[in-house]
Design a protein that fits this description.
The protein has 217 residues and is mainly α. The chain has helices spanning 2-20, 26-49, 55-62, 64-80, 85-107, 112-133, 140-164, 170-192. The N and C termini lie close together (6 Å).
């Protein structure tokens, strides 16, 4: 169940990246954020209730709420035209929390690929904080591209591999994700910082999600 949620986290991040790039209408994007936000609140609730008291399973599922609430916050904010500072500062909370979940995946769950993926999410949600909380509009294009790409790299592709049984070779996968992440975050900066800035739009909210790890299948 968790991996299905991860697939749709990839979709909402892709849509929100396009929204930030001015390719998707804000109100149209809001509706999909509400769909995925609701899914990412129901999913961890189910996983926790069916965990049988296993603290590792409960811990792994708990992070999904960070992203589910983000997407709900974004969807509602876009529909009623809320100021973005609230979701921006909430994104800072998510970014800091994501660092903790990354540590948990590396050290406690021994899930190295998702340890790296949580770092992706930490950096992405920190960008949301800078863009929406601190109103650093010059980051709009950069953040839009990062968001759209992360939708595939941290959501859709891992979910597809997990659902089809091809999620293998964790150490090599973690290294590949790490290398790609550095190239993406560093390489896109000079390519996007001089680009014209589209009208500001609200961000996506994780998860990617806190999209779930393989333990949540």
């Amino acid at each position: 169940m968790g991996n299905v949620g991860l697939l749709f986290v990839g979709a909402v991040l892709f849509i929100n990246g396009l929204l930030l790039l001015g390719k998707v209408d804000a109100r149209a994007g809001a509706v999909f954020n509400l769909f995925v936000g609701a899914l990412q609140v129901l999913t961890p609730t189910y996983l926790i209730f069916t965990a049988g008291g296993d603290p590792k399973k409960i811990l792994a599922a708990s992070g999904i709420y960070l992203f589910g609430f983000t997407y709900l916050y974004v969807g509602i904010g876009l529909l009623v035209l809320l100021d973005t500072t609230g979701v921006g500062y909430y994104s800072l909370f998510v970014a800091i929390s994501a660092l903790g979940y990354s540590y948990v995946n590396f050290r406690l769950l021994k899930d190295y690929p998702f340890g790296v993926i949580w770092l992706y999410w930490a950096l992405l949600w920190f960008l949301f904080f800078l863009l929406l909380g601190l109103k650093m509009d010059q980051l709009t294009t950069y953040t839009g591209w990062i968001t759209a790409i992360e939708g595939w790299v941290t959501g859709a592709i891992p979910a597809g591999l997990l659902l089809s049984g091809y999620w293998k070779h964790p150490t090599e996968t973690a290294i590949a994700l790490g290398v790609f992440g550095v190239l993406m975050f560093v390489g896109l900066w000079p390519l996007t910082r001089q680009s014209p800035q589209p009208t500001q739009a609200a961000p996506p909210a994780n998860s990617a999600g806190a999209p779930p790890s393989p333990d949540q299948k």
